[in-house]
Design brief:
The protein is an alpha+beta fold and 231 residues long. It has a domain of 139 residues: Immunoglobulin-like (Sandwich). It is 24% helix and 36% strand. Strands 1, 2, 3, 4, 5, 6, 7, 8, 9 and 10 form a 10-stranded antiparallel sheet that branches. Strand 3 and strand 4 form a beta hairpin. The longest helix has 35 residues. Keywords: Membrane, Signal, Transmembrane, Transmembrane helix. This is Peptidase.
Length: 231
């Protein structure tokens, strides 16, 4: 094989290697899912449908999750003053892992007028994988505590997963069981979705492979030129 052809072949191999590394980036899928809540309140049963969005971002050996409601749920017969209402919820794990994750958030920042849908603030929590593989995150039970009362809202329409992540267990093994073992986190909302830092790291590795291949091709070309000059 001539040196020009060898140079082109090496560059092609390096480019393909970089593409293969990028294609291996972890998958993440998120979608807004309508959840039909049936709520048990101190003044009777109520129902409401709200689109639910769950987002996740890699953080250390785990993931920080943010659960958001696009519409209000339940209501109160009296005004709820600032700080009178405290929400919390669970997220059901599925796929490679199982159990539930607790998410919490701040009390209402403004007065909630009587007989109007209660807007739930973003709730956050930290998920630490106990098993490796694709894990799904689905809206679970919503709990609203206000003025000494508790309202429990349960999904009744078997909603689909709002988020799917391809995760790796912190121990590096596929053993263990997830069941109410994650610690809740009152951090701020996290707009990113999925383990993007992993994808960036893999992309950087792919670029390194490509540069290494190009450098090798350039070295062969210069050596060929030097050899010809000595003849």
């Amino acid at each position: 094989m001539s040196y020009p052809k060898r140079t082109a072949a090496l560059a092609s191999v390096a480019a393909l290697a970089g593409s293969a590394v990028l294609m291996a980036a972890p998958a993440a899928r998120a979608e807004v899912v309508n959840v039909n809540y049936q709520c048990k309140t101190p003044i009777g049963d109520k129902s409401a449908v709200s689109p639910i969005d769950i987002k996740g971002v890699k953080s250390g050996s785990g993931y920080k999750l943010t659960m958001s409601w696009q519409k209000g749920v339940s209501s109160s017969p009296v005004d709820l003053g600032k700080g009178a209402m405290n929400p919390s919820a669970t997220i059901k794990l599925g796929g490679a892992d199982s159990g539930t994750l607790s998410v919490t958030g701040p009390a209402n920042q403004a007065t909630v007028p009587a007989n109007t849908p209660i807007k739930i603030s973003d709730l956050t929590g930290t998920y630490t994988p106990k098993k490796s593989g694709k894990v799904t995150f689905t809206a679970g039970v919503l709990t609203i505590k206000a003025l000494g009362t508790t309202t429990t809202c349960t999904p009744t329409n078997s909603p689909g997963a709002s988020l799917t992540l391809d995760v790796t267990a912190a121990s590096g093994s596929s053993g263990g069981t997830q069941s109410d073992s994650n610690t809740s986190d009152n951090g701020s909302a996290l707009p990113q979705t999925g383990p993007e830092d992993s994808a960036i790291a893999l992309g950087t590795l792919g670029g390194t492979v490509l540069l290494a291949g190009a450098a090798g091709a350039l070295w062969l070309t210069r050596r060929n030129q030097a050899a010809r000059a000595r003849r």
